[in-house]
Design goal:
By secondary structure, this protein is an alpha/beta fold. Helices cover about 35% and strands about 15% of the residues. It has helices at about 20-30, 60-65, 80-90, 115-120, 145-150, 170-195, 205-210, 215-220, 255-265, 280-285, 285-300, 305-315, 325-330, 330-335, 375-385, 390-395, and strands at about 10, 30-35, 50, 60, 70-75, 95-100, 125-130, 200-205, 240-245, 250, 315-320, 340-345, 345-350. The protein has a 6-stranded parallel sheet with strand order 5-2-1-6-7-8, sandwiched between helices.
C-alpha cells in the first residue's frame, strides 16, 4: 500500500526531540528523510533507555523511536567539502528542510533559509526553536521544561492549589513537532497551487500558548489567573481522579444529564436535587463536597467494578493506566500502536506507532533507526553523484563519520 507523502524528499537537521519528532511523522507518512548528524552523532543516541547490542555498543530506545525509517548522513559542517555536500543535497535533492537549532546557527554555514531560497526559491524550510526565529526572546536558549513554565503550562499543572510542576514528559517538543508537520503540509499544498516555497516558523512557546484552553479567555473575561488544578477542571464539577479499592479512575459528570446518571449509578438519586448540587454552577462552587461524596463511594469498589458500572450507565470514564497497562491494552493492540521493530544488532525494540490511520494509505513504521552514518555512501555516491574514489578520498580526510562495526 502506498503512503500519502511518497516522493517528498526531506533533509532534517533535527537533533534531540522536537524536529526529529516531526521528521519521524513525515517519514511515517511516506517522505524520504535524510538525517544530517554531527560526527559524534545525535545526543539522543546515548539517552536512556539504552541497551548494549550484539557488538557491545550502546543503542538508545528513544533515539530508535524518534528516527526509525530514516537515513543517516554524518558529516562535518565545519569542513568546506562537507558543507558543500550538504548544500548540494539541499539545492539539488530536497523538497523540505527541517531544523531545530538556535536562530542563526545554520546561517553560519550558508545553509539557512535565506541562503538556500535564493538558489532554490521553491524550497520549504521548517524550523522549530524555543521562541521563534524573530522577536524579543528569539536568541534565548530553550529547553522544554523552561518553556513549559514561561508559556503558562506549568502554572496549571500540579496538585490542586499546590506547587506547580512540569508535565511529566517533553510535551512541547512533541507538540511543536506536530505543529511543524501541519505547517509543512500546508506549505506543500500551497506550493502545489502556486509553485512558491516558504519558511515555516514554529516555536515551543507559541505551541504552548495555543493549548491553554480556557485560561486566556478566563483571564480576559473574568480576571481569573489559572492555577494548579490537579485532575479537576476549574470550570466544571465533578471532574477528577478518584481513588478506588485498588487504583484510581476518572469520573466526569459536568452537566445535569451526566450528574443524574452518576448519582443513579451510586444509588444516591437524592443528590440530584440536594441543596448546592442541583445545577452545574452549584456543583462548581461545591467541588470539595462533591469529590468527598464520590470518593466515599468509589473506595468501596475496585477500579474494574466502577468502570463496568460507568459503562453500563453510559458515563465517560478513564482508568489510571501505567505504560505496561497501555502496551497490553486491547485498544493499543487493535491499532498496533506499540509495535516491535527489528533494530540492527539490538533485536526487537518496542516503540510508538504513527497515530494517523488512512483508509487507502499506509502509515506503519517504515524500518529501523539508522546507525550513525549508515547511508553516507548511498547519499554521497547515489544521490550526489560522487565517484567511489572521491568518496574514499573524503572518507580518508575525515569529512564524515560512520559506525563501521557493521
Amino acid at each position: 500500500m502506498k503512503r500519502v507523502l511518497e516522493g517528498v524528499k526531506v533533509v532534517s537537521f533535527g537533533l534531540v526531540i522536537s524536529a526529529p519528532s516531526a521528521a519521524r511523522m513525515l517519514c511515517d507518512l511516506g517522505a524520504d528523510v535524510i538525517k544530517i548528524e554531527p560526527q559524534q552523532g545525535d545526543t539522543m543516541r546515548m539517552i536512556r533507555p539504552v541497551k548494549k547490542d550484539s557488538r557491545g555498543k550502546i543503542q538508545s530506545g528513544i533515539f530508535t523511536a524518534l528516527n526509525c525509517g530514516e537515513r543517516s548522513f554524518s558529516v562535518n559542517l565545519q569542513d568546506d567539502e562537507g558543507r558543500e555536500m550538504v548544500k548540494k543535497l539541499l539545492v539539488e535533492w530536497a523538497d523540505v528542510v527541517i531544523a531545530n537549532f538556535k536562530p542563526g546557527t545554520l546561517a553560519k554555514f550558508g545553509l539557512d533559509y535565506e541562503s538556500i531560497s535564493k538558489i532554490k526559491p521553491g524550497i520549504i524550510y521548517g524550523e522549530i526553536s524555543g521562541y521563534g526565529q524573530k522577536g524579543p526572546w528569539a536568541q534565548r536558549g530553550a529547553y522544554d521544561i523552561c518553556v513549559q513554565s514561561e508559556c503558562g503550562i506549568t502554572a496549571q499543572n500540579g496538585p490542586w492549589k499546590d506547587k506547580p510542576h512540569r508535565v511529566g514528559f517533553s510535551v512541547l517538543d512533541y507538540l511543536s513537532g506536530r505543529d511543524l508537520v501541519i505547517g509543512i503540509l500546508g506549505a506543500l499544498h500551497y506550493k502545489e497551487k502556486t509553485g512558491e516555497g516558504q519558511h515555516v516558523d514554529v516555536s515551543l512557546y507559541n505551541s504552548g500558548v495555543t493549548v491553554l484552553e480556557d485560561a486566556i479567555p478566563g483571564y480576559d473575561l473574568e480576571g481569573v489567573i489559572a492555577g494548579t488544578v490537579g485532575s479537576r477542571h476549574p470550570s466544571a464539577s465533578p471532574h477528577n481522579l478518584y481513588k478506588t479499592k485498588d487504583g484510581y479512575i476518572n469520573i466526569i459528570a459536568i452537566n445535569n444529564a451526566l450528574w443524574k446518571k452518576l448519582t443513579d449509578m451510586m444509588e444516591k438519586p437524592e443528590l440530584q436535587t440536594a441543596d448546592g448540587l442541583s445545577t452545574g454552577l452549584d456543583r462548581l462552587n461545591n467541588m470539595d463536597r462533591i469529590d468527598a461524596l464520590i470518593e466515599e463511594w468509589t473506595v468501596q469498589h475496585t477500579t474494574d467494578e466502577v468502570a463496568a458500572l460507568m459503562d453500563k450507565f453510559g458515563l465517560p470514564r478513564g482508568k489510571l493506566c501505567n505504560v505496561k497497562d497501555v502496551i497490553e491494552s486491547e485498544q493499543t493492540q487493535y491499532w498496533n500502536m506499540t509495535p516491535q521493530i527489528d533494530q540492527p544488532y539490538l533485536g526487537k525494540v518496542r516503540i510508538n506507532n504513527c497515530p494517523i490511520k488512512y483508509s487507502n494509505a499506509e502509515t506503519d513504521i517504515k524500518g529501523p533507526a539508522p546507525l550513525l552514518g549508515e547511508h553516507n555512501r548511498d547519499i554521497i555516491c547515489g544521490i550526489l553523484g560522487y565517484s567511489e574514489d572521491r568518496f574514499k578520498e573524503l572518507e580518508g580526510k575525515g569529512v564524515f563519520a560512520e559506525d563501521k562495526e557493521r
